[in-house]
Amino acid sequence: MWYFTDEEKALQEVCRNFAQNELAPFAEKHDHDETFNLNAFKKMGELGLLGITADPEYGGAGLGATAATIVMEEFGKACAGSTLSYLAHAMLCVNNINSNASDEQKKKYLPGLISGELIGCMGMSEPGYGSDAVGMQCKAKKDGNHYIINGNKMWITNAQYADVVYLYTRTGTDKKDLTTFLVDKGTEGFSVSKEIHKMGMRSSPTGELSFENAKVHESQRVGAEGDSVIHMMKNLEIERLTIAGISLGIAQACVDQCLKYANEREQFGKPLGEFQMIQKMVAEMASETEMMRHFLYNICKEWDAGRVSNTAASMVKLQLPKMATKIALDAIQLHGGYGYSREFPLERMMRDNKLNEIGAGTNEVMIMIIAKNLLKETKNKMG
Fold it and tell me: Whole-prediction pTM value?
């Protein structure tokens, strides 16, 4: 993008090279085996990418949504599953701690999380509360200078590998009485009770967290009791922007693969690219991807400037994953039988991207948020 800073352009080049060398060659194997590319994850720490938005005093890069989304796009082109795990660590855990935790908590956790010594995750969704996250029922009850936590968290990215969980709990009867805790691996009563096998993003470990009378010291509480809803909603905005970056990466990878294939593959004695129907397909796919890119990065720049509304972030999250799924399906169609086979990465990209229409707020929830906000704004203007 023409308005990327020199620092953002350098970051883009570093991430592009890393993705091609450390992610792409292993993407198919990790998808097939449902394994986590831990080696690449540790190297992300060596490059300083795991704390992309964290304060420099803790080892972070101190950058914003635009920079974080650049990482997502470049990594997403190569291996969306590994990128999702990166997002869960860097955006859902590290960014949350950096934004909301005390100085003592930041000093305790951020250096290890940013270096890659520790792996983080976030516990928000539950077996009965996905889209209705504020209705969660995992409870934390005060007991002297400790809290006793009971409940389960479902669909947690990085669950099996996490050393620390940024955990949302209920501490009161009001729906908004939510409180956050930092829970360490090995805490008595805390376990990963189930490994979840998925249609896509198979190289990103996903599991269920269980808390059975887990005892957590009050010093592990993030902020005051009952003030976590506003933190949750703010972090959801940057999560929605950055997960859309993965969809952009997938769409661009599909376009690149189609252009290569259209030049190499011959049918009826000439390259596919000489057929008008194929030209139409690649032209539309490339145009749609470029539209995605401009929409996403414009909103990221506005977010970094403090001017983005919940509506705009939700629009990005609604449209980009939907468009990327369409582009991936078109790419499969262009490749015919090869596209449907596992000889090419397109079927994996389509499977991976479908998660982006569900995670961080489903398409239906995004529609509800956008419509509700727009109608409210119009009503207020009308008086």
Answer: 0.97
